Amino acid sequence: MSAQPQDHAGTNNASRTRVVVLMGGPDAEREVSIMSGTEIARALEAHGAFEVTLLLIDRPTAAELRALLEPARPQVIFPIVHGPWGEGGPLQEMLETLALEAGTAYVGPRPKPARTAMDKIATKSVASSVGVRTPASRQLRAGEPIDLAAPLVLKPSNDGSSVDLRICRTQEEALAARAELEAKREFLMAEQYIRGREMTVGIVHGACLPIIEIVPKAEFYDYQAKYISDETRYVVAPELAPEIAEEMRSATRRVYEALGLRDVARADFMVDERGAWFLEINTAPGMTTHSLVPMASRHTGVDMPELCANLAHSALARGVRRGSHVGENLLALSTHPTHDKIS
């Protein structure tokens, strides 16, 4: 396990809220997480109300995480670790244990909502149950045929940032993509391909941010287009029929609430002549210089330092309600570690 705490605070920290930003993780989006974590730490430091420690982790156990956190004695943990481990439940189980036993608050969803939102098939089922339109999809199991007609999309059902996403226009392309992806992915899904405009809606504390249209130079918004390319165009508050815009905002709120999410998320859509199609919701949206939640927030007049401060303060308020000794019990817990998971 590798961990590198970096203190981003200056002097006169007695009145500042102690925040640890967790970044890294063991999954495919580790480098994106590091970019996001660095930007969050800079933003909180620029805000001035926080004593910030930036902590790079791999896949620590609960006891190891407690030991890593203990020197900083955080009042708030701000995790920005992407992928199945970092945003799909395992890390949240450890953070929930710290919240319950040490009063240490954390940003983002609790374990069960995190697990459900990470599973694209489960999330689409929840979306359908609350009347949100979503493309037909199937979990692909070894040996079973793909019973969706081309064109279709193959992608991992438990990862993000369009990692290992393939657009297949024919059944032959689908078979070839499936053979390629099954060699390295345990969980795959097939989804009806919707050709149209790509949109995203951020949501902070239950309020939707302005819609953003994504116009990649390439055919689709892949990892390169999201985090590296400067050729992707973003249109904030794009021209849309009012009923389509409201459909996306309503769908985002309904899915966010039905999953039991909190703090911040981002829902992705395709829009065609029939309306908006919900694809997925991200509970740890990127916070890089290319990322869409900070971009949409700036459009409302809330810059990155204020956005991150709002998220940290709301988490702290939850922690204070749980107990008055926020962050003070980590030393005892690291000396006498408890179980690594909660049920």
Write the layout of secondary structure elements.
Elements: E1 4-7, E2 17-24, H1 30-47, E3 50-57, H2 62-69, E4 76-79, H3 83-87, H4 90-102, E5 105-106, H5 111-118, H6 120-129, E6 137-140, E7 152-156, E8 166-168, H7 171-182, E9 188-192, E10 197-204, E11 207-208, E12 212-215, H8 223-227, E13 233-236, H9 242-259, E14 264-272, E15 275-282, H10 292-299, H11 304-322, H12 330-335
Parallel strand pairs: 2-3, 2-4, 4-5
Antiparallel strand pairs: 1-3, 6-9, 7-8, 7-9, 10-11, 10-12, 10-14, 12-13, 14-15
Helix pairs in contact: 1-11
Q: Can you describe this structure in just a few lines?
A:
It is built from 12 helices and 15 strands. It has helices spanning 30-47, 62-69, 83-87, 90-102, 111-118, 120-129, 171-182, 223-227, 242-259, 292-299, 304-322, 330-335; strands at 4-7, 17-24, 50-57, 76-79, 105-106, 137-140, 152-156, 166-168, 188-192, 197-204, 207-208, 212-215, 233-236, 264-272, 275-282.
Give a verbal description of the structure:
The protein is an alpha+beta fold. It folds into 3 domains: 4-108 and 303-335, 3-Layer(aba) Sandwich (Rossmann fold); 109-133 and 196-283, D-amino Acid Aminotransferase, Chain A, domain 1; 136-193, ATP-grasp fold, A domain (Dna Ligase, domain 1). It contains 12 helices and 15 strands. The chain has helices spanning 30-47, 62-69, 83-87, 90-102, 111-118, 120-129, 171-182, 223-227, 242-259, 292-299, 304-322, 330-335; strands at residues 4-7, 17-24, 50-57, 76-79, 105-106, 137-140, 152-156, 166-168, 188-192, 197-204, 207-208, 212-215, 233-236, 264-272, 275-282. The strands form 3 sheets. Strands 10, 11, 12, 13, 14 and 15 form a 6-stranded antiparallel sheet that branches. A 5-stranded mixed sheet has the order 1-3-2-4-5, with helices on both faces. A hairpin with a 2-residue loop joins β14 (264-272) and β15. The two termini are 25 Å apart.
